[in-house]
Task: structure prediction
Amino acid sequence: MPEADVVIPHWNRRDLLENLLALLRRQTAAPGRILVVDDGSTDGSPEAAARLGACVLRTGRRAGFAAAVNLGLRESRAPWVAVLNNDVEPAPDWLERLLAAAESQPVWFVVGKLLQRSDPGRIDGAFDALCRGGCAWRIGHGRRDGPLWSRPRAVRMAGFAAVLARRELFAKVGYLDERFEFALEDAEFGLRCALEGCGGWYVPEAVAYHAGSATLGRWSAAAVRWIARNQLFLVARHYPSDWRRRYGRAVLVAQGLWALVAARHGRLAAYLRGKREGLRLFERVRSASPPRADPERLDEVLRRSEAEIRLWQSQTGWDRYWKLYFRLAGGGWAQPAGDDF
Result:
C-alpha cells in the first residue's frame, strides 16, 4: 500500500487540532508525515502539535486556507497526500480505505463519505459540482445517508475538507489559487482538474465526520464576503472573453439567488462587500491568471457538472436555491449518461 503524508491547515481551535492528531495516530494505515501548517494561531496550537509529534510549518502571517495548504503540499514527500480540515474526525480505517482505492483505480484523487458530526445520519458532502453561474454544491449536503451514497463512482471534483490526492497532481494542474484565501479555492482547483481530465473516485466506505465552519462559525460575515468575492474571481480566472453572452444570465441568476440566501442569514451587507471587492479586482485577477482553457472545453465541463447537480437534486429532493436556478438560468445543461459525469 502506498504511503501518504497528511496536511492540516490550522488557525486556533487547539482542541480540534489535538483531537484530530489523536485520531490520526489511531489510523489502521499509519500516515507518513503529519504536517500541521499553522496560519498565525495565538492559542498555543503550534507548540501543542509539536508535542504530539507533528511537523509544524508556519505561514508567518494570516495567509489563508489556500496558502496554508500549498505550504504543506510543497513540503510533502510521499506519493499521496491527504488534506484534512482541523474540524474533521476520520474513522480509524479512513486513510487505509482511501489508499486501497487509490491503488486500485487509475485516478488522481479519492474522496470518502463526509457525514455531519452533529447528525451522523446526514451527509455533509460526498463530492463537488459547479454550475455555469459560478456557484458550487457539495453533492448530498444535508441529505439522509442511505444506499444512494454507498455506491463507489467516478467524480470530477472534490472538496478539500477531507481528500487524498497524488502529489504529482499539483505539479500537473498547479496548486490552490492563494488569491481565493478561504472559500471556493477547492471548487476552482476542481475545475482545473476537470479541464485537464484528471478525475477522481468516491469511496463511500472511507467515512469521516465534519463539524463544518468550526473555526470561523457557520455563516460568518467573513465567510460570506469571501464566497461572494470568489464567485467573481472564479469567473474572472476561467471564463472566456465572451462570457457575458455565454453565461451572463446564469451568473446573474446564480449569484443573485445566493444574495437572497445571504440575506436570509442576515449577511446581505457582507455579501455586498464581497461583490464590490470582486468587481474591483475582477480585471486584475483576469489579467494575472494563466491562459484560459479552450472555451468549448470549459463549456463542456460546466454543462456536464451542472447536469450532475440537476440529476442529484432530482434524485434526492430539490433545494429551493437550485429549483429556482434551473427555472431561471435557461437551458444548456446536458443529461449525463449513467455515471459518466
Notes: The chain has two domains: 4-210, 221-328. Residues 29 and 96 are 5 Å apart (CA to CA).
